[in-house]
Amino acid sequence: MIEKNYQPADIESRMSRIWEESGAFMAGRPERKDAAPFTIVIPPPNVTGSLHMGHALNNTLQDILCRFERMRGRDVLWQPGTDHAGIATQMVVERQLMERQEPGRRDLGRAKFLERVWQWKAESGGTIVNQLKRLGASCDWSRERFTMDEGLSRAVVKVFVELHREGLIYKDKRLVNWDPKLLTAISDLEVQQVEVKGSLWYLRYPISGKTFSPEDPSTFVVVATTRPETMLGDTAVAIHPDNERIGRLIGQHVILPLVGRRIPIVGDDYADPEKGSGAVKITPAHDFNDFEVGKRHNLPQINVFDREGCMTLVDNEDYLRGLPEGALMLAEELHNVDRFAARKKIVARLEDFGFLEKIEPNTHMVPHGDRSNVVIEPYLTDQWYVDAKTMAQPAIAAVRSGATSFVPKNWEKTYFEWMENIQPWCISRQLWWGHQIPAWYGPDGKVFVAETEEEAVGNALGYYVEQEVITEEQGRAMAEDPAKREGFITRDEDVLDTWFSSGLWPFSTLGWPDDTAEVKRYYPTSVLVTGWDIIFFWVARMMMMGLHFMKDAPFSTVYIHRLVRDEKGAKMSKSKGNVIDPLGVIDDFGADALRFALARGAAHNHDIKLSPQLVEVNRNFATKLWNACRFAEMNSCDKPDGFEPTAAKETLNRWIAHETSRATREVTEAIEAYRFNDAANAMYRFVLNIYCDWYVELAKPLLMGEEGAAKAETRAMVAWARDEILKLLHPFMPFITEELWAVTAKRDGLLVLAQWPRKASAVTEEQIASMAMAGPGDPLIAPVMAALDAGDFSDPAAEAEIGWVVDLITAIRSLKSEMNIPPATLISLVLSAASAETKDRAGRWSDIVKRLARLSDISFADRPPEGAVQLLVRGEVVALPLKGVIDLSAERTRLDKEIVKADADIKRVDAKLSNEKFVANAPEEIVEEEKEKREAAVARKAKLQEALERLKLAS
């Protein structure tokens, strides 16, 4: 028995338990051993994370696909798991130690600290998994993986060792994003650009060989910088070769202010002749662009900061090399001074000596660590790298050949741009939590990469015996007794970037490097669902690793979804206070309502605008479905065994079979094409407008009438259509549909494992015969032919009749709304020059049309009465005599005024959108909002003009 009120919280907790206990989501079910596999790997959320709206969207879309394919009979594996999230997790545990006033990480030591991290993971690391379950994610939770699991860790080590052996992993000194607070390199994804109101300092660099005078521009070159503290590491000044104004200086030298070092002026395209003075300082060790310029001109790299962002000059060999006598005083004064304090000292000193020309206010983007919130320093260090350029080539070819395709297609351009310009991938991190790099160093710094310490020790001892650094006897002793080799060989302390291990996710989760049955069956996966922002960081890494080690792309399709924004189109952020908490929304409206709202907005070409009110609309939709199912139950609607909807006799019932078949086709094709919004909106329209508002309403006279064949057939058809709705809606709203499936009739099993609606037997013999008799151009031919081609059930005659009823009532209701006629007001309807078919329909449906359209009577006439407003319904004129009902003249005046207002709204928006400055500077969401205002105003004006034309015809 269906409860009177729809209570999402009660249903969701109960259904989650039932699904889990039944093993409904498990891959490899015995009855599907011969079924085609369908595999999705979850983008592993950070183990420290909690569900945000991006997770909610991403996992809802994955779940739609998995539930859809599971109902279509596929052997579905939705592989779940979490990422160890090196920096985030280490920070959480370190903060916990500090809050509890316990010894810090370095006091504990590496081994003890890692014990504490594993302890935290066991106690608190599963939060997001439980939140995903609340969302309804139908992952095979029995196969949950963690990037630091023993098996996945073994895969990481094997990949590192093999790539190193092939020369694709190497150590190099390059610039990295360095976090001076966390003391580690970080990836670009962990850097956020923050707009800062700063300054632009214009500095005078004396030209070598000339006597410097601040009053004589011919004695110096002006450079502008936002970071004067890095000037101590300058090794050149660059000018564009085509700079007509100062290009003659290329090949000369300048004297670095305060330092006295002689540095060259080089010609390089990087210097923009139109920007600033046309000359730029080059600091290869502290700027990514300068680093590339330095490589092109073989410039020295002078790092003037230490790991914590303090000046390090006194013992800095690179800085001291070539330093003039007497210049050491500045190095001593700035030694160990924080970079920003050093900036003030340096600027003051530059001003004292006349090297500071001017300071201008300058708003610019400054990179910050997304977790530490400190300014990121481009920093020159020794790190481990992957030769990404070499590994990218097969990954580029796989997309170009169509082996892997992006949906929407335009994201392939982004992928190619990134991959074709790919830089070496820095994979080492100066952390303790993560996969420790399998590299050991000998006493002379020689590196030994191996899968195990024993193997590395063996290789090292063999090498040093051969080099006669140690004797064979010492080598044997050290091999047999670990105590004797302590300190002789030490392991690299760094760990690997988390993107390294997550790049193996599609096959490491299946048991690789072991030759498992799961790898053979579920790799490659079917589709990857992810956001555009990690195409480079994750998608590209998986493509490179999968093709290299599995010799096959990890997925055939990459579906890229858009962002979830607030209702005004602004990006959600804590600072703006516009973040919508998905768990709070689920508490208020239920998971189904949130999922359906996200799916309905998930279009290919624009971001999703979300608000709690929008979720509430979809909760109301769920309530409407609930009440419709309850109405069916109260009217004893049940589907008898063997019931065949296409054999129905009643026109109304054949119409709903026709509409259900059409909805099945629309939803199926839309999901197959990853048009989630089209699929969800098709269901919204079908359930609300077709089934609830029209079919159930039109069926009420039959359901409440006398017992007989028509009533029995209608009861069965109401139940059949309801069941098809529950199946079609299940991927989007799994909880409510599973509950209604269980309580509406006796079932063989769970809806999650039920069969997806199949296309019904096509067209009746009578329709085929009537089509054969039809003449060329007959409108009945096209829909019947389409139905025959698609294999759908189609009944054009039933659609024509019930469609006429629906369109007639809808048109009358719309007219009343346009003319400000109260809905309850009874008016007359005249069918003008009606065909015999229309007269028959009017006779059959007269009572229902009068009741639902609030008509006093329906009559027929050769022409519309004078003063009647005319409507065109399915090619025939219907007239509504409104004289005496409304003041036609006053209504025309009102409509004229409304049209003028709509015109004014359109012009106001056009003025904004034609203003190039507004479009360039306004936030994207504001521009989109203005475009939407214009579309709404244009649509409103069109409806008003249509209404006005009707009134003019009535005059």
UniProtKB/TrEMBL annotation:
Ranges where the Aminoacyl-tRNA synthetase class Ia domain occurs: 16-611
Enzyme Commission number, as recorded: 6.1.1.9
One Gene Ontology term of the molecular function aspect: aminoacyl-tRNA deacylase activity
Pfam family, one: tRNA-synt_1
Coiled-coil stretches noted in the UniProt entry, renumbered to this chain: 927-954
All copies of domain Methionyl/Valyl/Leucyl/Isoleucyl-tRNA synthetase anticodon-binding, residue ranges: 653-828
Any one Gene Ontology BP term: valyl-tRNA aminoacylation
Gene3D superfamilies assigned to the protein according to its UniProt record, in alphabetical order: HUPs (3.40.50.620), Isoleucyl-tRNA Synthetase, Domain 1 (1.10.730.10), Valyl-tRNA synthetase, C-terminal domain (1.10.287.380), Valyl/Leucyl/Isoleucyl-tRNA synthetase, editing domain (3.90.740.10)
Alphabetical keyword list: Aminoacyl-tRNA synthetase, ATP-binding, Coiled coil, Cytoplasm, Ligase, Nucleotide-binding, Protein biosynthesis
Superkingdom classification of source: Bacteria
Residue span(s) of domain Valyl-tRNA synthetase tRNA-binding arm: 887-952
Chain residues that bind ATP: 574
Motif segment ('HIGH' region): 45-55
GO CC terms in record: cytosol
Localization: Cytoplasm
PROSITE patterns: AA_TRNA_LIGASE_I
Reactions listed under catalytic activity: tRNA(Val) + L-valine + ATP = L-valyl-tRNA(Val) + AMP + diphosphate
Motif ('KMSKS' region): 571-575
Entry-linked PANTHER family: VALINE--TRNA LIGASE, CHLOROPLASTIC_MITOCHONDRIAL 2, VALYL-TRNA SYNTHETASES
Domain notes: The C-terminal coiled-coil domain is crucial for aminoacylation activity. ValRS has two distinct active sites: one for aminoacylation and one for editing. The misactivated threonine is translocated from the active site to the editing site.
Quaternary structure annotation from Swiss-Prot or TrEMBL: Monomer.
Protein purpose: Catalyzes the attachment of valine to tRNA(Val). As ValRS can inadvertently accommodate and process structurally similar amino acids such as threonine, to avoid such errors, it has a 'posttransfer' editing activity that hydrolyzes mischarged Thr-tRNA(Val) in a tRNA-dependent manner.
HAMAP family linked to this entry: Val_tRNA_synth_type1 (MF_02004)
Family: Belongs to the class-I aminoacyl-tRNA synthetase family. ValS type 1 subfamily.
Protein name: Valine--tRNA ligase
Gene that produces this protein: valS
